[in-house]
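Section 4.2 – Deliverable D4.2 (structural model, holo form)

The reporting period included a commitment to supply a predicted holo structure for the target in complex with nickel (II) ion. Inputs used:
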Amino acid sequence: MLNLTYLSHSSFILDDGTHRLIIDPFITGNPTCPVSVDEIEAQYIVLTHAHGDHLGDGLELAKKHGALVIAVNELANYVASKGAKAHNMHIGGARTFPFGRLKFTIAHHGSSSPEGQYMGEPAGVVITMGGKTVYHTGDTGLFLDMQLIGQRDAIDCMLAPIGDNFTMGVDDAVKATEFVRPGLAIPMHYNTFPVIEADPHLFQSGVEALGLRARVLQFGETIAL
Ligand code: NI
Ligand code: MN
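Output (structure tokens):
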């Protein structure tokens, strides 16, 4: 079993009852996140890239809970230089951790630290945990290789940005879902700030028009996958 909690923006918690993992923990300074950082506990922190709305509270959470940060090489080195435990990976590589298998995928975006240093390539991530496979695209534009990602792993749940401006908008995110053909698509990276305002129900109806399933989660909502 796998429970997925949507904290808002691109931040999700995956919990299989034994292991808890948080992806892109942007909590402090996130006006849509319904919980405070004190309420978050995780053993693993997965970062898709270094931008402040993804690295977020990652360093603080890692140090407070002794959590392992999993990221691409350059970002993992940065996190380690700040005193957190890190596991370095890179795009195309998979590894089996105690919680399950994790593989980084390409994403078309940028990745710079809060100090403005470049932090290597941004990424998406495919995580198999609790018998389910989740594809978090990270921040990205649409790309045709998403078809390959959907072919290499049967994706039970795809998390796709719809906010436009910095990432895919609704129409491209619907196309991305068509490429990946997940069991369920969930929109993310919208309505956090005015510049990424979008209607998640337009995404849902667009995906359903393809004969695929989509669901709009409330900020803070948990579902069993
Ligand atoms: Ni970004
Ligand atoms: Mn972002």
